[in-house]
């Protein structure tokens, strides 16, 4: 893990210092050291979940885990300026569905840069038509804020996402 700490530190530094590249909901109340500590603590819970569900996942240097189920069109990938149209389900580590798109959505034309950091990282790994599963530590999701009545603070997200299209 010590090998990845500088990478995680730099990733979180960019999130804290460049809010235009992070989700709008980020409240900045978590220090960088605090975010790294939480990612390390949640890593144990995530690995327990992965083992219990017999998943094969890749760990991104940020601390997020992902599995590309279908790479999609590998000739073009999203950028942070892209507007994704996706189908998604977000659950927690207890397998409780927190929210879902129930069909495709482009979030009213919101650019990828305005989504949670875990999605910014993960959705750039597949092309149009791609499908992936992501397990996102809370500092790369909705952090200490959560989303009122939908996602509690400090929730690790398990996201199943299909990229329908992007502009």
Automatic annotation (TrEMBL):
InterPro entries: PPIase_dom_sf, PPIase_FKBP_dom
Species in which this protein is naturally found: Chitinophaga tropicalis
Top-level division of the source organism's lineage: Bacteria
Ribonucleoprotein listed as a keyword: no
UniProt keyword annotations, A-Z: Isomerase, Rotamase
Family: Belongs to the FKBP-type PPIase family.
Catalytic activities: [protein]-peptidylproline (omega=180) = [protein]-peptidylproline (omega=0)
Domain PPIase FKBP-type: residue ranges: 72-167
Protein name: Peptidyl-prolyl cis-trans isomerase
GO molecular function: peptidyl-prolyl cis-trans isomerase activity
Matching Gene3D superfamilies: 3.10.50.40
Keyword Isomerase belongs to the record: yes
Xref: Pfam families: FKBP_C
This enzyme's EC code(s): 5.2.1.8
């Amino acid at each position: 893990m010590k090998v990845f700490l500088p990478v995680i530190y730099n990733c979180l530094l960019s999130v804290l210092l460049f809010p235009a590249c992070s989700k709008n909901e980020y409240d900045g109340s978590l220090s960088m050291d605090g975010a790294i500590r939480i990612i390390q603590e949640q890593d144990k819970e995530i690995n327990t979940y992965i083992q219990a569900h017999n998943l094969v996942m890749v760990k991104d240097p940020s601390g997020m885990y992902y599995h590309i189920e279908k790479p999609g069109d590998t000739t073009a990938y999203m950028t942070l300026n892209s507007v994704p149209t996706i189908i998604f389900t977000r659950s927690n580590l207890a397998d409780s569905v927190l929210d879902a798109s129930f069909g495709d959505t482009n979030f009213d034309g919101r650019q990828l840069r305005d989504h949670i950091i875990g999605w910014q990282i993960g959705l750039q790994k597949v092309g149009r038509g791609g499908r992936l599963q992501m397990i996102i530590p809370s500092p790369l999701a909705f952090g200490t804020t959560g989303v009122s009545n939908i996602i509690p603070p400090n929730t690790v997200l398990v996201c199943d996402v299909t990229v329908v299209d992007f502009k």
